[in-house]
Structure formats: structure tokens, C-alpha cells
Amino acid sequence: MRVRAVAATTAFMGAAALLLPNTAAHAAPAADNPLVVAHRGASAYAPENTLAAVDRADEMGFDWVENDVQRTKDGRLVILHDATLARTTDVEELYPERAPWNVADFTAAEIARLDAGSWFGGDYAGARVPTLEQYMRRVSRNHQKLVLEIKNPQLYPGIEQQTLKVLGNEGWLGPAHLRKLVIQSFSADTVRRVHALRPAVKTGVLGTPDIADLPEYATFSDQINSSYTTISESYVATIHALEGPHGKPLEILTWTVNDADNARRVAAYGVDGIITNKPDVVREATQN
Ligand code: G3P
Ligand code: CA
């Protein structure tokens, strides 16, 4: 992933080094364009978290995609954002008696029957909720790179190990693929667990932790991935002044930026990546 630009923040880092116990001094490399990550696939243009959405990102020329993984009643991993199937599938029509339509209350076979595309538009009628295996094979076929979010892990005990097992089975834990993979979660415990289970895997904590807590996060997480509404230039600089578990500067991806003005603003902060439903808009605004 890109190396951040810290030239403008060298003075700040000097001050931060006095304040932050695990702060490492880093040279100031040249500025670089932030990575553009297609959020839930290119989700402004195709139904989120479907194979069509990662294909759309690929067709638009984006290799990094972000998607969410959860678990079915019978223990299969599937790609879906919400804890329920209601918003992005026709589950209420097919299974009207099954409210509140939690992912965890449906088997993989039941979920495979759902239409996950029509809600977005007729062109996508019949798109399915992919299993993690189906999804990994499509991302592999497209030669794409993946920020995989373990979503709602409190609902799915052991999902960290199970996710890693599938990734290993699909060949994504070897050296070539490790460069193409980040596992992230809003749960710091989940990220800590992933790091403990597979220290070589790059990880990210979602959220905007207090600055005082960042050195602890940096012991198990390579990235702090924050909402663009919560960050500042100094927060980005503070992150970059720390060293992550792989001996490299801590990174920050920010989400979900869908307009040019905010894309330019966070790019000027020096973020490492921008997660967006509209990767074309962000690319146009930020890539020199
Ligand atoms: O990758 C960041 C973003 O996906 C986190 O929020 O709710 O879209 O999963 P959410
Ligand atoms: Ca997500």
C-alpha cells in the first residue's frame, strides 16, 4: 500500500514523539496519490456486496474492493453488510413469516434463493448473495485486492478463525496474496484475534480511537480506518507517526467519501486510502 506523505507534518511529529510512548520517527517520503477502494464493490453503480459490484469495480479499473462477511445459520460465510437480509434482498417476499430476517437465522441454501439485485435496479435482477468462497474466486479471477470487513463479529463466535480458514483454502494467505489483503473490523477484539491467529495478515481497526489509545492499537493493527467526518490533518499525522505491528508506519484509510471536495480534503491530509461508493469520482478528484 502507498507510503504516506508526512513532509508537511514533520514539526508536528516532533512534538508527537514527545507525547506518544511508542512513536517512531520516520523519514518523509514524497507525496503519493491515495489508494482508491471501491466500497462494497462499486456500490453506487451495482448492488452492494454482489459479484456484479466487484466486477463493476474491475471494469472501471479499480483493483481494491471492500466487502463485508457474516455467517449463516448453518455456518457458511456470506458477503453482506446488514445484520438482516431485508434491505438488500427480496427475503420479505420469499419468507414473509421470518421477520426480522437476520442473516444468522437463514441457511446458506435459503439465502442462495434470494434476489440481491432487483432492489438496486432491474438490470441486476437475479444477482445473488455470494458465499465467501464464491466471492474470493471472483476477486481472484479479476486480479483484485481486498479489504475484507468482519461484520458484527459479536453475533458469530469464531468467525475470525473461520474467515482465515476460508482465505487459506482459497490461497489468499500465501506471500503473493498477503500483499493484496487487509482484514478490518469495528471490533478491536476481532482485529486483535486475527493478528494473533495470523500475524502476517495486514489488519485495520475501523473507527477513530482516542489518540492516547493509538499506540496500543498499533501493536496489532496496521491501519486505523476512520470515517472522513471524524478526521483532521493532525489525526492523520499522529497515526503516521506510529509504527504498526509489521514495523511500518501505521496507515489510515477513510470512508465513505463520495464527492470530489471531501476526497480532495482528505487527500490533502495525506490519508493512505479513500473508501468510496464512487471510485471514479474520487479518482478524478485525487489522482495526479
Ligand atoms: O470500510 C469502511 C466501511 O465499510 C465501514 O462502514 O458500515 O459501510 O461497513 P460500513
Ligand atoms: Ca464495510
Q: How are the SSEs ordered, and which strands pair?
A:
Layout: H1 10-19, E1 35-39, H2 51-59, E2 64-71, E3 77-79, H3 91-94, H4 108-112, H5 132-141, E4 145-150, H6 159-169, H7 175-178, E5 181-185, H8 188-197, E6 202-206, H9 214-217, E7 223-227, H10 233-240, E8 253-255, H11 260-269, E9 273-276, H12 279-286
The chain binds SN-glycerol-3-phosphate and calcium ion.
Calcium ion (CA) is lined by residues 66, 68, 149.
CATH class: Alpha Beta
Terminal residue distance: 17 Å
Largest sheet: 8 strands, parallel, barrel
Structural class: alpha/beta
What would you give as the CATH superfamily? Answer: Phosphatidylinositol (PI) phosphodiesterase
Alpha carbon gyration radius: 19 Å
CATH overall fold name: TIM Barrel
User: What percent of residues adopt helix (DSSP H or I)?
Assistant: 25-40%
Overall tally of domains? 1
Mean pLDDT: 91
Beta-strand level of the residues, as a percent range?
A: 15-25%
Low-confidence stretches: 1-30
Strand order of the largest sheet: 1-2-4-5-6-7-8-9
The CATH architecture designation is Alpha-Beta Barrel
Total of helices: 12
Number of strand elements: 9
Bound molecules: SN-glycerol-3-phosphate, calcium ion
Topology as a string of helices (H) and strands (E): HEHEEHHHEHHEHEHEHEHEH
Which term fits the overall shape? globular
